[in-house]
Write a structure and sequence with these properties.
The protein has 219 residues and is mainly alpha-helical. The protein is built from nine helices and no strands. α2 packs across α3, α2 packs parallel to α7 and α5 crosses α8. The longest helix is centred in the first third of the chain and has 30 residues. It is globular, with a radius of gyration of 17 Å. The N and C termini lie close together (7 Å).
Length: 219
């Protein structure tokens, strides 16, 4: 029983670590200064319209997507809740310390965007493989992916982010070369990471909050 509790703590920590890595990737795409990733573009577009910070908008949008995931019968676990609550705040926190200056070189900016997408991909791998359920946006990707089992998960993600980008563009979000790279390369980066780690997100058996809590308490 104690081993189960320790294992659960490790898995939850793995989820939090993965989300931090993902947030670092988001930060890199922002600092590249040539347009940000589609989901972040949408949050940036909404932020001035409602008068609240990017991080808070990202958190609220995550909660809304979480409700959609529930309607699509995806499990809601600690990883899902952590994603909804932490990613936006992680990005705000990293931005406060501002460890990487804004790029003023196009070649460097392109490299930063690509590096950011791979960091995001590894972050996704870490928290998806923890089995604590995915974050709202990735749960949506997997939910739709399950309905198209023969379509590579990277392609599913590409279609989703293209739709999100269109919404962000319509609302006046910051779109640039980096945003376009994100649309066509984010799914590819995730697919490459999954192949390197021999990982298929749709095959993971996730735990919901109740299941994880019982194991955490050693029941």
């Amino acid at each position: 029983m104690q081993n189960q509790s320790i294992q659960m703590i490790k898995q939850i920590f793995r989820s939090a670590l993965g989300l931090f890595l993902y947030s670092c990737g988001v930060y890199l795409t922002v600092q590249a200064n040539i347009g940000i990733a589609p989901w972040e573009c949408l949050s940036m577009a909404i932020s001035p319209l409602v008068g609240i910070s990017f991080g808070i908008v990202h958190m609220i949008s995550g909660i809304i997507i979480l409700c959609i995931d529930l309607l699509m019968k995806e499990k809601i676990g600690f990883g899902t809740i952590l994603d909804a609550l932490l990613v936006g705040n992680y990005v705000d926190w990293i931005g406060y310390f501002d460890p990487v200056p804004v790029s003023e070189s196009l070649p460097l900016s392109v490299l930063m965007v690509i590096a950011g997408l791979f960091v995001m991909g590894y972050g996704q791998y870490f928290y998806m493989s923890a089995g604590q359920s995915c974050g709202p946006r990735d749960s949506l990707t997997i939910a739709i992916g399950k309905r198209f089992p023969r379509t590579p998960i990277g392609v599913v993600q590409t279609v989703i982010v293209a739709i999100v980008l269109f919404a962000g563009w319509m609302l006046g979000g910051p779109i640039g070369i980096g945003t376009i790279i994100s649309v066509f390369f984010a799914g590819t980066a995730l697919q490459i990471v999954c192949r390197m780690m021999r990982f298929e997100p749709r095959n993971v058996k996730h735990l919901n909050v109740m299941e994880a809590t019982k194991l955490l308490l050693g029941k």
